[in-house]
Amino acid sequence: MISLTILVLSFGVFAHAAPAANSPEEVRPLMVGQIIPSASIRTLSGAKTDLASVVRGRHSVLVFYRGGWCPYCGRQLAALGAAKESLKRLGWEIVAVSPDAPVELAKSKGKHELDYELFSDSKGEASRAMGLAFTVDERTLETYKGFGIDLERSSGERHHELPVPAVYLVGPDGTALFQYVNPNYKIRLDPKLLIAAAEIYGPPKQ
Predict the structure, then answer these.
(1) 66 vs 49, 52, 92, CA distance in Å?
(2) How far apart are CA 106 and CA 86, in angstroms?
(3) I need a labelling partner for 193 at 20 to 30 A (CA). Which of 60, 61, 128, 178 fits?
(4) How confident is the model at residue 18 (pLDDT cuts 50, 70, 90)?
(5) What angle do CA 11, 50, 39 make, to 5 degrees?
(6) What is the DSSP string of 3-15?
(7) What are the φ and ψ backbone dihedral angles of 178, each rounded to 5 degrees?
(8) Phi, psi at residue 138, to the nearest 5°?
(9) Dist. CA 191–CA 63, nearest whole Å
(10) Helix (H) or strand (E) holding 143
(11) Strand, helix or coil for residue 60
(12) What would the mean pLDDT of 126-154 be, rounded to a whole number?
C-alpha cells in the first residue's frame, strides 16, 4: 500500500473527529491501512448520508477538495472527469467531498460537466474525521474576501474550516489503500499517478 503524505507530522495515535488543526501543515490525516470513518455528509439534493457507507462495497477514489471557488480544485475536478473512464475500466468510482453547500456543488457539477458523485461536508464533520481539517486564519479570510471568496456563503456555516486537498484509494471494506495529502493546495496528484495506483490496487482483472 502506498502513502504519499507530503507533510511534516508528529506521529502518534490517530484520533478520529479531532478538532481542526491551526494550519494545513499541522493536520494529521487518516493513514494507509486505516478505515474510512463514519461522518455525516449530504448529497446534491441535501439528503443526509454517511461517508463510510458511501465508499464501502466498491473501489472508491475518495477526493477531498476546498471548494468550487478554488481554481486549483476546479482544474482537479475537470482532470478527474477526464480520467473517469480510465478509472472505471479499472473498477474504480470517484467520490468527491468539499465544504460547499449542496447548491454550490450543483454549480461545480454543471460548470465542469462532472459525471461523478459530489458530496457536501458543509459542517466539516467528514474532513475532521479524516484528520484533514484546518481553521483558516483571519488574515487569509480577509485576503479571500478581497478576491470575492466568502467561505461562509459557500458552506453556509461559520466554522471557517477547509480540508487539506487529499486523494485516497479505498477498498470495498473501507480500508485506505493509497493516500496523497499535500498542505500546498497548488500541488495536486497527477492523474497519471492516480491511474497507475488504481491499476495496482484495483479489483483483479477478469
Answers:
(1) 20, 20, 22
(2) 24
(3) 128
(4) confident
(5) 35
(6) EEE----------
(7) -150, 150
(8) -60, -40
(9) 12
(10) helix 138-146
(11) strand
(12) 96
151 grid coordinates: 467561505
* Joined grid coordinates for residue 119: 458530496
- pLDDT of amino acid 12: 34
Dig out the grid coordinates for 89 from the structure. 475500466
What is the tens place of the pLDDT at every residue in 77-127? Answer: 999 999 999 999 999 999 999 999 999 999 999 998 999 999 999 999 999
| Cell output for 59 | 473501489
How far, CA to CA in Å, does 43 sit from each of 9, 53, 134, 143? Answer: 32, 13, 23, 30
d(CA 137, CA 59): 36
* Residues 45, 60: Cα–Cα separation, whole Å: 21
> Residue length, the chain?
206
Domains of the chain, with CATH numbers? Answer: 2-6+20-201 (3.40.30.10)
